[in-house]
Sequence to fold (650 residues):
Amino acid sequence: MPADAATLDAARPDAARPDAAGPDAGPDATSPDAGPACEPSGPEACGGGDEDCDGRVDEGFPVGAVCTVGVGACAAAGLVACDDAGGARCEGQAGAPTPEVCDGVDNDCDGAVDEAITPVACYGGPEGTLGVGPCLAGVRRCVGGSVGPCQGQILPAVEICDALDDDCDGRADEGCLRCGDGRLDAGEACDDGNLVDGDGCAGDCTLEGLLGGLLPGVQRDVPLAAITQRGWTQCYAGPYSHAGTPLDEVLNGCAGEQLLIGCRRTGAPTFLAAAEGLFDEVTRDVGNGAGALHSHNGVDFYFSRDASWGFAPLGTGVNRNTCDTADEASPDRMCWHTSAGQFRGGWRCGANTRLNASAAYERVIFKRDEVSLGALRGFGHHGDCDDFNGCVDAQTCAEAACRHAGLGRALSWREAGCSDVPGLDCDLFASLPDDLDTDWLPVCNIPVAYDVICAGLGRPVCGDGAQHPDEACDDGNLVDGDGCSARCTVEVPLEVFAGPRADVSVAELTAGGFAVCHTETYATVLDTARVQQRCPGQTLVLGCRPVGEPGRLTVAAMGDRAAIFDPVPAESDAFQVHNGAHWYYSPDFSLGFAPLGAAVDRQPCDVGASDPTLRLCWHTINAGGWRCGATTGLNGSQAWERVVMQRVAR
Fold:
């Protein structure tokens, strides 16, 4: 072959085909310079090698793919890269966290959205009304990424005659004509539900000097002080739950010219319903008929030893089954069961019915004897009409005449000028209360009191404050549960009780093994964690009282510590039943109790109106306390205090 032909053949493209022999052969060559075969070293790892010898590198690791670093508002784009441990990670720069705000975003980048957003106080009422009367701020909470509406605030309302400052202007019941509404309010000597003169209670709610001094009709919301100031003496009290007291024992202890029968929440200072009459009329046995009654002093009374004892408004009728079940919503009806000559359970006290086993309500009876100082015998001023020597009007002269006679208060009198009543004999005081000038002749026609009726002193009774030979004690009242019972027997220390109680003796609780573990004014924001730390006892008593009155709690309830602080939803009607009471505790809402069977209205503190003396509520967020019994609007008050007691080891 020519030399140039050999050269051309060597330069042909197929000269280096893969199956050609020689040192440059392909992968299947078996020449001595071929590398060693791949040996697997384990699962594929991220790092640029082919650990599993499958001819692929870093399979299963998306190196270079876009990824995300950080969470929430801090999230940013990054790229997947191998880490030092053979795995993969997202490499990039996350954003910086910021404080959490209510926007539905995880601002602080902790994986939670809108957590721990503190509720904000809010109030939509007019300027100057916040904290006045019942008006109260509410709170706005973060809900669904936005600030929710103002919840729990109490705004000014239209003023009504309810003894509250409803419109939060610093005045209560302005413009209200309260005389004649059947409620005995401050400044009223009586209120018989009308504005008629001549029926014993005048149109301006002052007592009229009618014979006997009995107020006609059913009386509602009557303060105890208004009863005792008129010469009535309490002669019996007992809870509706108590049965077995002989009626003869009650009637003998209450023997007098006149009776007042009424009912109230146990220990309360005000009677829900009461009626007055002559003893023989109030206790006249009318039999057991369903409609049997007896009308007297503007009231329909009924009494029998084997059915019931009570009253209803005049002319409205009764339905005794065996107690009167007519018009259960009426505040003017009262009924107590009787059987075999004994008291049985009570049943109704005003609009509160089905109270047969209730210790939260009690029957109370007052008696009053009356002594006449003589018909047409007048008592007035001695002198020449410019030196009145101690009495200035007919009422004060009547009171002085009764004191001079050694009797009780003046129950009734008439007023006239000394020469205006034919036959009137004027006994005019020369020196009160020592002398009477029975021979004085009127030289001027000054006003006098005549036909004066005084309260008799009566015989000693339990509750008059003086211990008599047949009494083991006498603490001046007829209230059970304060160490000396309504029967003047010594009571054992109060160790346990169920349901809210009004006017609770601290000494009695102390004797029962309790000690104060926490107290602070209503002006202090309540720290429930601190209370639980200071009061670790199993059994607690929550109560309240005016500052400076350490002897008693205005209202209190007892319960297990775990149950008291067992949270319920922060909702207006949320509560749980424990030890005879409705308890509620919600952090950032309220803590308190209400009577068993009574609804609560937490806004966020309980503004419920029924049984007000047996309710307590303290705010657990951004405010002080709010109510202690019937006294409300106490946020920021340094005149009232919260009290927590715990049972201590003995």
The two ends are 130 Å apart (CA to CA). Confidence is low (pLDDT under 50) at residues 1-32, 382-389, 429-444.
